[in-house]
Design a protein that fits this description.
The protein is an all-alpha fold. The chain has helices spanning 2-28, 30-55, 66-100, 103-108, 113-118, 124-143, 150-176, 178-181, 185-195, 207-217, 225-232, 243-260. 34% of the residues are buried.
Length: 265
């Protein structure tokens, strides 16, 4: 019991320390922080201008009305903000640790290594993006044409959490490939480029094969379309809740297999 309590206290001390480091980094690089916030706001404004110019000429795109697309944009911001705010800067320590040998120190800590690499520093800019996306979602729900019940909102919330889990697991899988390829910066950039299309309605993807590809193999649709479908087509989305745990399990199995062949830097 004493050992369990000491490990629990150690985990809390590490979490507090990492949060403090994140706050200190924000204080030290405030100009960079606000420049990033300006870039996020510009992207959001461009999305509204882009789709607004389209919907100024047509009533819907593949059955998606204006409020549906606004909800999609907000949901994509919501999921990406949660990922960037809570996980992204932590995950990159894995590939960096493999290259430098710093991973050896993480392996010595008396906690689960994967959890240690997932949680830690908090990115305040990402959390700001999260709340910005939440504001857009609330606006879209008020302006929407669909009748949204409590059950639909619960399904939507579960799938947003599932989208964050999918984003986390997919990013961790990419970082784990550093055990095999050492430098995964190109793969990380390619993955992020794909997720830039998360705010586009799924009707732009022709045919079920493309939709299946971008839901399972390159899970872009999870970053917005799948949660929004819980409000537009509630009967067709609940089976997808099985996918996030499976992808998290796949990331854990690959990480365990990679550790077995790891020989330090």
């Amino acid at each position: 019991m004493r050992g369990a309590r000491s490990h629990g206290g150690w985990r809390w001390s590490v979490a507090v320390k990492q949060l403090w480091l994140g706050l200190r980094a924000w204080r030290s690089f405030r100009s960079s922080f606000w420049l990033g916030v300006f870039a996020d706001m510009t992207w959001l404004a461009f999305s509204f201008v882009f789709f607004g110019s389209i919907y100024g000429r047509v009533g819907s795109i593949g059955g998606w009305g204006w409020s549906d697309v606004v909800l999609l944009i907000g949901t994509a911001q919501l999921i990406e903000g949660a990922h960037v705010g809570l996980f992204e800067s932590n995950l990159r320590r894995l590939s960096a640790g493999v290259r430098s040998g710093a991973l050896d120190r993480w392996l010595l800590y008396p906690v689960d290594t994967q959890l240690l690499l997932i949680f830690g520093r908090v990115n305040l800019r990402g959390l700001l993006v999260f709340f910005l996306g939440l504001g857009v979602v609330l606006y879209a729900l008020r302006a929407g044409e669909h009748q949204i019940g409590a059950a639909s909102l619960v399904r939507y919330g579960l799938l947003v959490v599932g989208g964050v889990a999918v984003r986390l697991a997919a990013a961790f899988l990419i970082e784990t490939l550093a055990f095999f390829f050492v430098d995964v910066a190109v793969l990380r950039a390619l993955q992020n480029e794909f997720y830039g299309y998360a705010a586009y309605p799924q009707s732009v993807y022709p045919g079920w094969a493309w939709k299946l590809l971008f839901t399972l193999l390159i899970p872009v649709l999870w970053m917005g379309n799948v949660p929004v479908a819980a409000l537009r087509e509630p009967g067709q989305v609940l089976p997808w809740l099985v996918f996030p745990p499976l992808l998290l399990l796949a990331s854990r199995l690959l990480f365990a297999a990679a550790l077995r062949r790891y020989q330090s830097a």
